[in-house]
Amino acid sequence: MFPQQNAFRQYFDLSGFWDFRFDPEDQGQAAGWADGFEGSQPIAVPASWNDQFLEDGAGGARDNLGPAWYQLNFGLPWGFAGRQLSLRFGSVNYLADVWLNGVFLGRHEGGHMAFVFDATEHLHADANRLVVRVDGRLAPDRVPPGNLPREANEGFAMHSYPDTAFDFFPYCGIQRPVLLVATPRQAIHDITVTPAIDGEDGLLRVKLKASGDNARLVLEGFGSQRPARQALKLEWEQGEAEVRVPKASLWSPAHPNLYRLTFELLSGGQVCDAYSLQVGIRTVAVEGSLLLLNGEPIFLRGFCRHEDFPVSGRGYLPPVIVRDYDLLKWVGANSFRTSHYPYSEQMLDLADRLGFLVIDETQAVGLFFKEGGLERRLELCQQFTSELIQRDKNHPCVIAWSLANEPNSIHPAAKGFFRQLYDLARSLDTSRPVTVVSMVGEAEESFEFLDLVCLNRYNGWYTQSGDLDSGVQALSAELDALYARYKKPVILSEFGADALPGHHAQPPEMFSEEYQAEFITRYIQLLESKPYVVGEHVWNLCDFKTSQAVFRMNSFNYKGVFTRDRRPKLAAHRIKQLWEEKKR
Ligand code: BDP
After folding, report:
1. Residue 525 — pLDDT band, cuts 50, 70, 90?
2. Which of 307, 361, 494, 514 is catalytic?
3. Is 581 a known active-site residue?
4. N or C: which end of the chain has fewer CB within 10 A?
5. pLDDT in tens, 421-455
């Protein structure tokens, strides 16, 4: 549960300038840095470390993936003493070890995901020292993987420096805020709200875990309606209830109506904790070749993006989030996928408010199945899937879970691997479709059990290069075959072409703005002519940084329809026009 501020809860944001140093010999722990270290330089938190410094040691700071150490001294904020206290990290990439006042609090593996350590017994009233060792190195037994032996990637290996098995820069560090959190001793621990629709009414099925005697719910709706109250009985610290919302205002992209549902925990007849959620009443379902929102067919128009910006890297940057939503609105999008890792919780809160349909993806990108270590990769993917669903389950904006992007799943082991992940996702949430975003097409046998067919295609770019006619023709045939075989709704989850901003060619030619605009136009026209296609996500909203490689000029992927500093290319204007016409 994201921390809140109310009469019972408080949090303090530890963002700011911390002390930082690299640990090239990996001797920091032996040298006692966990208790505090010297020889540091200031660093901004949250942000990736890679683009904050020009130099550090022989390799330079940019390509130095750690280990590195962070340290912060702070006093306990007023009002925090006597509470349950914890430290919450929004995202540390990739591996974090955390010490508070010399005491080891724990380790978390995997970036892009929040994790919490209890700190109640270890915080001092006056001076505290928080130390974090961060290891962002690439390895075959990490997810996403890197530094793979050449044969591991079944021929798909991209050779780049740093050597990622994925196409974005492996930014590392403390990339989202670190919060010091105070909660009551008797508290609400977990809330699950699943919406349903019954005629004109909405239903909110609520599950609560809390350590009090009993609880009550307060639902606030629109303007004049009075808040509705309802009791919720707890047994063994768990309780369930169904809240009926008469004549509900449903949530949708056109009308992102949100209710406010407050949980009050009672102990000895007194309220001892409270937590409020913004909830949207909407349903998602797959029926035949259709994707339904609130029982009506819906078509996803939008993009994939990256958390990526100059200097801050993958760091949490609120103005860029606002700008990106403005770009999405301007161009007429209603949807995006969190390629290729979970985005910040704040990004999803805004998607709820602004009415975007989100395919929420784990960080399982670049998976391979040939080499050893599959068990470990499965364990990590299971952890990431559970963490994602636990974190994002209450967002109305999230309409599907994506378990992975472009696994090299022509290998026979892939199907069993994804069957296990699919079953896990389904056991945690039955209210949303589950998918894997594939590049292998018909050979992706997991499509037999996945709820949506998500395919990435670059015909006219990586294949049929420069020849859009043949590319689009081949795509059309492939989509038909895919639907004929699996009979499920299809989303073209990536398609796009690099365009160097300011480079023009008529007739259109690869890498020109005209070619990108033409490529996307032809794809959109094709996709919207196929009744079983339910979505189109252009790759990518903005240009973004990658590792160095011969196929990545300036270490950028230029498939953005906006530049990295968020200016439109020709394609953005073209898409805006196309999607405006569709809406009419
Ligand atoms: C797709 C990947 C994406 C890449 C894109 C590209 O899913 O991460 O950035 O290709 O090559 O295969 O531009």
Report:
1. very high
2. 494
3. no
4. C
5. 999 999 999 999 999 999 999 999 999 999 999 99
